[in-house]
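Subject: DNA invertase structure
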Amino acid sequence: MRTREGMAVARAKGKLRGKQPKLSIKQQKELCRMHSCGTYSISDLAELFSVSRPTVYRTLARQLGAKSAHRLRRAEAP
C-alpha cells in the first residue's frame, strides 16, 4: 500500500512519468535523416546511436508513419 500512496503523491505533484525515451527528439530526427539518405543500414544506425535495432525500427515507425516502417522492414529482409 505504501507504493500506491507514494505514486499518488508523485502524480499529484506531476512527478510520475513513464520510461524516458532512449533518443532525444533531435537524435530521432537525425536518425531518420541518416536513414533516408541511404548510406546507413539499420545495424549501422543502431551502433552509431548505441541503441538496439528494434529501437531504430520503432523510431523510424514513429517518425515516418507505421505503413512506411512496415514497408521498410520488408524491403530490408533478405
